[in-house]
Amino acid sequence: MPSLKDLRNRIASVKATQKITKAMQMVAAAKLRRAQSAAEAARPYAERMAVVLGNLASGITVGPETPRLLAGTGSDRVHLLIVCTAERGLCGAFNSSIARLARDHANRLLAEGKTVKIICVGKKGYDILRRQFAEQIIELVDLRSVRQLGFEQGDMIAQKVLSRFDAGEFDVATLFYSRFRSVIAQIPTAQQIIPAQIEATGTSSDAVYDYEPDEGEILTTLLPRNLTVQIFRALLENAASEQGARMSAMDNATRNAGEMIKKQTMTYNRSRQAMITKELIEIISGAEAL
Amino acid sequence: MATFTFELVSPERVLFSGDVDAVVLPATEGDMTVLAGHSPVMTTLKTGFLVVTSTPGNGRRVLVRGGFADVNQNGLTVLAERALPEEELTQDILDQEILTAEMHYDATNEPAAKHAAESAIAQLREAKAALNF
Prior knowledge:
The complex is a heterodimer. Chain A is 62% helix and 14% strand. Chain A is of the alpha/beta class. Chain A has a five-stranded mixed sheet with strand order 3-2-1-4-5, sandwiched between helices. In chain A, helix 4 links the parallel strand 2 and strand 3 (137-141). By secondary structure, chain B is of the alpha+beta class. The A-B interface holds A 38, 41-42, 44-45, 48-49, 52, 55-56, 150-151, 154, 205, 207-213, 217-218, 221-222, 225, 229, 232 and B 7, 9-14, 27-29, 39-44, 66-68, 70, 72-73, 77, 79, 81-82.
């Protein structure tokens, strides 16, 4: 039976923890708003890009001259997984669910006898994945020093991926991130980015397009840019998801702490009452004995 | 004057969306003006000023770097890799842009890319002069 002092201390420490989780929740809520509006602001660009690319790609037939970013290298032996996670923990199952998706994917590929290479964006994913895939991880991109995600970061990662692709280091690239649906729902997603997956737009116009410079050249400048946009978008979605996940995780923690305080206070009051009763009985029985 | 729908989108945000009279684009193969009813065309952009005219004789200038423009029956869409409205330009930003362009120039050996970077630098210097910095 813990003493009254022990109980008091325990309640005080849970209260302190609750204050921290409450503060973290509020910070996450503020950051979430910013991250969410950034993610929403970036959406039109990515959508227009997809439309333009769809128009362009539906007009050409895949041939030997088609850029390899669109047509692929013709084999699918080496897979590159780009795993985007957060730099910080304490955000529920956010990091582990992305890592789990990537791990399942990697295991399946390995079982099929394919070679797997992994680029980790964000430290947490790296921490989880390196236990199993220490040899497969070829690079860790650290974004901890980045305060405000910009297009430059997406570009930086895309350049790394592109230079490896040009060097023939892999055939297929898949991007892992968490899509932001709402504060309580973030969906871990795998998206193939090389070769580019283009939804053919049904609305491709019959009008004859003029291309300046020619079609192929536009496509070659467009495809790397599309890659950058996709990665940038993944980063933004991830940032919003992270804050959302942290917010709900911290909300839960705050609530749990509240429950714990309630229970502890109850025990504390009970044992205090018991002490008083015991003392009274002692006094009364002492007086009766006289 | 007939108007058409114009959208200027950068990765971070939508900068302009609405009906305009004319837009001058810094296309890679020379500046071009898009008016209502322009035939469908797709072109890449170089560094330079894009001029939006929504009321006659009144132009709004936006510095764009890289990207492309898509003209179709629905209007004009410009996807710029970086877009800065004239009001937001400062000397620091321009100097930074010039520095980036110069780095691109030094980093590449391809004649085409070299030429592109060179003209970007020239454009930026011109912009700097035009804005009296």
